[in-house]
């Protein structure tokens, strides 16, 4: 009975979590008269389904351009985040220096500053380097969000790796950098996956900086491009909005589930030893 109750709770949680996604998928193919009638069941097609609103998303908006901008910006931000956060986390977790503790706290405090307080000063910096109204401004700005918290996550993962492993690698002739790359990085790979997922999802969903720094339609990411194209005054292209939600969520959910075990293992390691 206890196991049956556990499975029932798991199935119930899955249904509740999947409910909004199923509703979005059904709504994307509903006719206007079906959607706007409050007497109709929102989870059923009370009138015949139509693909017109999904086709409108591709034919009358720059949705594919938004998706491509989000993809390449997210990929670059992930690479920049790993390039800076891995060495920083290793230095703070492994090197016994008096400044390690205060510097780690300072890095984390940077993440706690609300974006609404920073985008004005950051906009001056973006203008100063000539990246205003360019997607490259997001590549410059987003790492200021992802690197601080990624450093703290990776510090927790690195503390789970015994120092003896890299010391043995250095005894065998590797430098500290070589020991880090060949002995430590493979062991914290679940943590790296967790950071990749975190950095990419944060980049794809961020709104304030994307709205403040990028105005041309062909430069916008999904987070600002879709609402700008599909919310016009008091007119909401609701079915197309839901179609965009589903089309963005599906590939991200698929990739996330491919690495789910490593993602959970990484966060568990960091939580236990961090």
From TrEMBL:
<feature type="transmembrane region" description="Helical">
    <location>
        <begin position="236"/>
        <end position="260"/>
    </location>
</feature>
<dbReference type="InterPro" id="IPR050901">
    <property type="entry name" value="BP-dep_ABC_trans_perm"/>
</dbReference>
<protein>
    <submittedName>
        <fullName>Carbohydrate ABC transporter permease</fullName>
    </submittedName>
</protein>
<dbReference type="InterPro" id="IPR000515">
    <property type="entry name" value="MetI-like"/>
</dbReference>
<feature type="transmembrane region" description="Helical">
    <location>
        <begin position="105"/>
        <end position="127"/>
    </location>
</feature>
<dbReference type="InterPro" id="IPR035906">
    <property type="entry name" value="MetI-like_sf"/>
</dbReference>
<keyword id="KW-1003">Cell membrane</keyword>
<keyword id="KW-0812">Transmembrane</keyword>
<dbReference type="Pfam" id="PF00528">
    <property type="entry name" value="BPD_transp_1"/>
</dbReference>
<comment type="similarity">
    <text>Belongs to the binding-protein-dependent transport system permease family.</text>
</comment>
<feature type="transmembrane region" description="Helical">
    <location>
        <begin position="71"/>
        <end position="93"/>
    </location>
</feature>
<keyword id="KW-1133">Transmembrane helix</keyword>
<feature type="transmembrane region" description="Helical">
    <location>
        <begin position="179"/>
        <end position="202"/>
    </location>
</feature>
<feature type="domain" description="ABC transmembrane type-1">
    <location>
        <begin position="67"/>
        <end position="259"/>
    </location>
</feature>
<keyword id="KW-0813">Transport</keyword>
<keyword id="KW-0472">Membrane</keyword>
<feature type="transmembrane region" description="Helical">
    <location>
        <begin position="139"/>
        <end position="158"/>
    </location>
</feature>
């Amino acid at each position: 009975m206890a196991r049956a109750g556990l499975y029932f709770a798991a199935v119930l949680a899955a249904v509740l979590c999947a409910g909004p996604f199923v509703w979005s998928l059904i709504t994307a193919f509903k006719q206007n008269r079906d959607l706007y009638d409050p007497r109709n069941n929102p989870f059923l097609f009370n009138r015949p389904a139509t693909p017109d609103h999904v086709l409108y998303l591709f034919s009358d908006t720059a949705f594919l351009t938004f998706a491509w901008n989000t993809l390449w910006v997210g990929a670059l931000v992930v690479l920049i985040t790993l390039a800076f956060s891995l060495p920083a986390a290793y230095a703070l977790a492994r090197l016994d220096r008096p400044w390690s503790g205060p510097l780690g706290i300072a890095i984390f405090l940077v993440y706690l500053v609300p974006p609404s307080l920073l985008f004005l000063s950051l906009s001056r910096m973006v203008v100063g380097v000539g990246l205003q109204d360019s997607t490259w401004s997001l590549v410059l700005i987003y790492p200021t969000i992802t690197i601080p918290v990624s450093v703290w996550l990776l510090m927790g993962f690195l503390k789970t790796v015994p120092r003896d492993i890299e010391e043995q690698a250095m005894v065998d002739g590797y430098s500290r950098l070589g020991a880090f790359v060949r002995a430590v990085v493979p062991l914290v790979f679940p943590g790296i996956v967790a950071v990749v997922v975190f950095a990419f999802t944060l980049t794809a969903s961020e709104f304030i900086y994307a709205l403040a720094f990028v105005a041309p339609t062909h430069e916008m990411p999904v987070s600002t491009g879709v609402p700008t194209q599909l919310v016009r005054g008091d007119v909401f292209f609701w079915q197309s909005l839901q179609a965009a939600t589903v089309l963005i969520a599906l590939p991200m959910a698929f990739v996330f589930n491919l690495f789910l075990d490593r993602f959970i293992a990484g966060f568990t390691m960091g939580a236990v030893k961090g």
